[in-house]
UniProtKB/TrEMBL annotation:
Gene3D superfamilies: 3.40.50.2300, FAD/NAD(P)-binding domain
Signal peptide stretch: none
Record has Oxidoreductase as a keyword: yes
FAD/NAD(P)-binding domain mapped to chain residues: 231-538
The species this protein was found in: Blastococcus colisei
Reaction it catalyzes: [thioredoxin]-dithiol + NADP(+) = [thioredoxin]-disulfide + NADPH + H(+)
Superkingdom of the organism of origin: Bacteria
Keywords: Flavoprotein, Oxidoreductase
Protein name: Thioredoxin reductase (NADPH)
Annotated coiled-coil segments of the chain: none
SUPFAM superfamilies in alphabetical order: CheY-like, FAD/NAD(P)-binding domain
Length: 551
């Protein structure tokens, strides 16, 4: 394995020297460091590195190079190293400058840079290195070199091998997949010997042969069986809303347990880059956000019961009784429903048969390396689809975004619309739907229908990523929990007259038709389908829990 390289380009010798000093002092044990004084020299060097099979992890460039924006040079980097992180070096005095901010936004939207970094101050400048570590980790994840990565080896792409990858994705655990007969697969098996497939090789070297979902959850950390316990607060669902409620509930002294049929993160783990989340100017993956929130809640004292399905709840004299699929019961003083929602199924039988073999629900972040140089289609018009398109464009030959609506603006944030439109290898087909497709063991074609005139077209496709609609996980709820026609939980003043009369008081804003049971995040009727709003509702729900418990 070659040693990856960090490249810095600046035509000001003094400024380049300060950058080189920091790079060599901190990164030379693990990376090659190359600092050059002109774009001409840098482009020639990258051409030589490409020919030599070298890898470049990070390229830094001055704000101005030979009188031109440094972002123009960084835009050329992708021709040589499509997965290299690219950052613009800006002076401390330019932070907050309107023109600089506009230029950075435009460069990101056009796919020329990943973000910026403030030039290093006299050593030690830990802010500079924190920023660079973020870029280097992002590169490592795209190259499947992230720390604590799990190897999955299977005999086929689909079936149980794909199910295991889905479980690892839900657990927000970095992983990579190799077919047993591939070069990578044979190299892994040479170290672990003949085993039963599919298998997982953990970062510790421990091998798990065809593990159950519960085995994987236990390997991610200690999970509990909450049966027979009493809690102040039971949270059902471990997506952004549930994690937020867990952080605030536990940190404020409530005995809290979070129960989920999967693991951490919910649908958010499929987001490859959330760029508009407060406090993460460089963006954050849904999986990383989920891992951070889980660690917060865990340290504050929240307990987690993973791979355990809640099957019912009822209000009894001694509290709210939550039933588990194991037959166990948990008693709570208050419950927050935060089950979220998942992508709706496409319902095309020939494509459902290829689930995991070219057809994926979400999974753009984890499956992206599989589609290098191929034709890829994404179905969906919301932010998650836009984020997936941007991410996959760094791997695929071309990404086609298939949207039922007449415009992207109907369901996608402005900044993402702009970025999608500016990415040269993304095509957008509005007013279109997927109605067919197939392949022999792996997807090879799709059938698209124009919704305006009904015309159908067959197109070649190597992969299809489906991110359509939202289906709430509420099928298990008892009839006493009021829902709208689509299955979302109704709360607060929108409850029906019968529920309002039964309360004998005004229900709290997030309270369901069952007193003491609240709903937060995507599962709630009328919620804003954004990660930030789900996190906000999870925290607000805890304030209402305190008021309920004080009565």
């Amino acid at each position: 394995m070659t040693v990856p390289l960090i490249l810095a380009v600046d035509d000001d010798p003094a400024l380049l020297a300060s950058v080189e000093r920091e790079l060599r002092a901190r990164y030379s044990p693990d990376y090659q460091v190359c600092c050059l004084g002109s774009t001409t020299e840098a482009l020639s060097t990258m051409e030589e590195l490409t020919a030599g099979g070298e890898e470049v992890a990070l390229v830094l460039a001055a704000e101005q190079l030979a009188g031109a924006p440094g972002s123009e040079f960084l835009g050329e980097v992708a021709r040589f190293f499509p997965h290299a992180q690219r950052a613009l070096l800006i002076g401390w005095g330019h932070v907050g400058h309107a023109d600089t901010g506009d230029a950075i936004f435009e460069a990101i939207a056009r796919g020329r840079i990943d973000h910026y970094v403030v030039r290093p101050a006299p050593a030690p400048d830990e802010q500079f290195h924190q920023a660079l570590s973020t870029f280097l980790l992002a590169w490592a994840e795209t190259r499947r070199r992230a720390p604590h990565t799990i190897d999955v080896v299977g005999e086929t792409w689909s079936g149980r091998a794909y199910q295991l990858r889905e479980v690892l994705g839900r657990c927000a655990m970095p992983h990579r997949f190799a077919l047993a007969q591939s070069e990578e697969g044979r190299a892994i098996l040479a170290d672990v010997g003949t085993r039963r497939f599919p298998l997982l090789v953990m970062p510790t070297g421990h091998v798990m042969e065809d593990p159950s979902d519960e085995d994987i959850a236990r390997s991610a950390g200690t999970t509990i069986d909450p049966s027979g316990e009493r809690y102040d607060l039971v949270i059902v669902g471990c997506g952004p809303a549930g994690l937020s409620a867990g952080v605030y509930g536990a940190s404020e002294g409530l005995r809290t347990v979070v129960i989920d049929s999967g693991s951490i993160g919910g649908q958010a783990t499929s987001s490859s880059s959330i760029r508009n989340y407060l406090g993460f100017p460089r963006g954050v993956t849904g999986a990383d956000l989920a891992r951070r929130a889980y660690q917060q809640a865990w340290v504050f004292g929240a307990r987690f019961a993973f791979m355990q399905q809640v099957t019912n709840l009822s209000r009894e004299d001694d509290g709210i009784v939550v039933s588990l699929h194991t037959g166990g019961l948990v008693v709570a003083r208050a419950v927050v429903l935060a089950m979220g929602a998942s992508y709706r199924r496409l319902g095309v039988e020939s494509l459902e048969a290829l689930h995991g073999a070219g057809v994926f629900y979400g999974a753009a972040a984890s499956e992206a390396p599989l589609v290098s140089g191929e034709e890829v289609y994404i179905v969906g018009g919301a932010n998650s689809a836009g984020q997936a398109a941007i991410h996959l464009a760094g791997y695929a030959k071309r990404v086609t975004l298939v949207v039922r609506a007449a415009t992207l603006e109907a369901g996608m944030s402005h900044y993402l619309v702009h970025q999608v439109e500016e990415t040269p290898n993304i095509e957008v087909r509005t007013g279109t739907e997927v109605v067919g497709g197939g392949g022999d063991g792996w997807l090879d074609h799709l059938v698209l229908r124009n919704r305006a005139d009904g015309d159908e077209e067959m197109v070649g496709a190597y992969a299809l990523f489906l991110m359509i609609g939202a289906q709430p996980h509420t099928e298990w709820l008892p009839a006493t929990v009021e829902r709208d026609p689509a299955g979302f939980v109704v709360t607060g003043s929108e409850l029906g007259d019968d529920a309002l009369r039964a309360f004998g008081r005004r229900p709290m804003t997030l309270e369901t038709s069952v007193p003491g049971v609240l709903a937060a995040g995507d599962v709630r009727h009328g919620s804003v389908k954004r990660v930030a709003s789900a996190v906000g509702e999870g925290s607000i729900a805890i304030q209402f829990v305190h008021r309920l418990l004080a009565v």
